[in-house]
Structure formats: C-alpha cells, structure tokens
Amino acid sequence: MAELLFGVSVPASAAPGADPVTLAQEAERLGFDLVSLPDHPCGPDPSYEATVLMTWIAARTSRIKVASRVLAVPFRRPALLAKLAASLDLLSGGRLILGLGGGYSDSEITALGGPALSPAEKVDGLAEAIQVIRGAWTQPGYSQDGRHHSVRDLEMEPRPGRPIPVWTGAFGPRALAVTGRLADGWIPSLGYMPTEDIPAMRHRIDAAAEAAGRHPQDVRGILNLGIRIDPGASPRPDLVTGPVPQVLGQLHGLLDLGFTGFSFRLVGPGRKAGLQHIAEEVIPALRSARS
User: Fold this and answer.
1) Alpha carbon of 95 to those of 9, 140, 173: distances in Å?
2) Cα(108)–Cα(115) distance, rounded to whole angstroms?
C-alpha cells in the first residue's frame, strides 16, 4: 500500500492580507508533506503567477514538496515548462510535483492569446505536452511531431536529477485514460464530480495503465478537498465538515475509494486552528488506521 500523503492547498491570492508563503511555511512546520496551488494567471481577482509563487515558496521552505494543481498546458509551451520544472526541481532539492491539465477555462485561454480548443483538442494537447516534457528531461536532441506540440532537436541541460512526478487533474474519460497511460498521479477536486462516480473514474485510469504495460498503483490518487473542522458546520457535498470524529469518518470513506492522501483547502473562520487540528488529530488517526 502506498504511503499516505497530506498537503495544504495554498491560494495564489495577491489580495490585501493574503499570505500564501506564510501558510506554506506553517504547513511545513506542522509536518505536512506538500503544498499545492492553482494556476489562474488572469482575471479580476489579484493573484500571483503560479510558477513564480511555487519558486518563492520553495525558496522560503526547506522540506515540503511543492505541487501545481494544475498548470494549464495551453498557457505555456511544453518545452519551456520542461525547463522550468527541471530548474525548480534542481534548485529546491527535488521537491517539485508537476501537475498539468488540459485547460478547462476557455475564457482564460483566449484572454492570454491562445486558440479556442475543443475538449478533445485539450486532451490531445495534454498528452503531447507530457511526452514533450518527458522527452526533454530524458533524451538528448529530442524531436516530436504532434498536432498540437512539436519540438526539433531539443537539447536541455541540466536535466532533472530524478524522475519528476507528473500529476493531472483529469475528469473526462479521455483525460483519465491519458492519466493512466502517461501520468504518475491524479489530483481531482471534490465537488467537481459526484462521489459515486469516483470508482468508475479510477477504474478507467487503472485500465489505461494496464493497457500501457504499467501497474495501476504507479498512478497515485490524491484528492483536493475543502475542509472545515467545526461542530456547527453544515454538511456540503463539496466539503468535508463537522467535528474531528465526523471528519475522520468522511475521510476514511474517501480513502476507501482508492485515494492515498489529501490536499486540504481550509474553509471558514479559524483556519489556522483548523490546520493545527488536521496536523495533530486528523492525520495521525488516518495514518494509524492505514498502517
């Protein structure tokens, strides 16, 4: 059984009073395994560019892993993403998890100058991007002819000192198959799909992994979810809520669906106290029950 991983979802907010770096430092102090952050480079809400914030967090911490959840492929050229990821992983001492997605927000893609893409084109572009990135990391003079992403005689040094994990946030059938065929992890968000659909989604990943000659356990499942530890919190399908015993029951149920960890997004008042409760009461109980 894979070791459980626990993370904190860090907002990329640049609004007054927001302090994502301090939150990441607190997560490290409390013993969390990773921090994850989203990628929304445009829009009316003030935000930091995801890869810059990831680099700044890595520079201001020493142990915790830093994951993108997830970088939209249409925003950046895959070969440059490969260079960025290799650089950040080397500079951080091997702490990057590269989360990638096809780009769900059409308005963001076109606002940044990208082409309008069909869902199928986004999935195909994601698969080609993963292949470009892995080729750049591992093969000298790498070339690839794709419908969406092509490179010629690509030389990239230094290469990563280890295999950088590539995760996706896939939901659709074709994207789930790409995850099983090419990725190392799956980090969907609770609330974007009915919980009862998760087993079928995981089965599609596993079937694609086996068809590609891989072991399904090679594709780790981490669920990103909102959490509020509060006896008075109302139940919501997109959140885990309630006192600690009730929260534990909900999280055990989600682990039973095949996940091997969580990235927690703190919701509601008392977020700092909630983070402490998770670190001191929730995570030890989950680890003990799964050991």
Assistant:
1) 16, 24, 30
2) 10
pTM over 0.85: yes
HSE at residue 86, side-chain half, CA atoms within 13 A, is 19
Distance CA 168, CA 162 (A): 19
Give the whole-angstrom CA distance, residue 212 versus residue 210.
5
| Nearest-10 Cα torsion for 25, 30, 35, 40 | -60
Residues in the chain: 291
Assess contact for 89 and 96: CB atoms under 8 A: yes
CA 91 to CA 81: how far, in whole Å? 15
Please, which pLDDT band fits residue 235 given cuts at 50, 70 and 90? confident
- CA–CA dist 229, 11 (Å, integer): 19
List, for residues 250-283, the tens digit of each pLDDT value: 999 999 999 999 999 999 887 778 899 999 999 9
DSSP type of residue 74: G
